[in-house]
Amino acid sequence: MTIREYRKKPLTVRAVQWTGDNESELHVFTGGRFQAVDPEDRGDDPAITGAVLDVLHSTWVGVKDGQWVIQGVKGEHYPIDEEVLAVSATLL
Asked: What pLDDT does residue 65 have?
């Protein structure tokens, strides 16, 4: 077995935090692929207050208040918890 080591290049990503009341901002940021979720449509997780379309996987992903919506390197959007973002990224 050959073990190899790799270093991933640091990337710069864009992100907007979902506050629960900035739907229009997220809608513009995602190119129309974000929407607030009505309480009666939240299903099993009442903390899901928004949804963003993950175009790479053709599925809607739930977003909770306080999460950041990231724009990935291929233009895709996905949510990430603030704690994870704080550990893995540096604000420019």
From this structure: 97
The CA distance from 77 to 74, in Å, is 9
Determine contact, residues 41/49, Cβ cutoff 8 Å: no
Residue 85 three-state SS: helix
Strand order in the sheet with 48-54: 34-36, 48-54, 59-64
Q: What is the pLDDT of residues 74-87, one digit of tens each?
A: 889 999 998 888 77
52 in Cβ contact with 77 (< 8 Å): yes
Q: Is the dihedral of CA 43, 45, 46, 50 positive or negative?
A: negative
* CB 71, CB 52: distance < 8 Å: no
pTM of the model: 0.84
Query: Could you tell me if residue 80 is left (phi over 0), alpha (psi between -120 and 50 degrees) or otherwise beta?
Result: beta
Residue 70 near residue 80, CB atoms below 8 Å:
yes
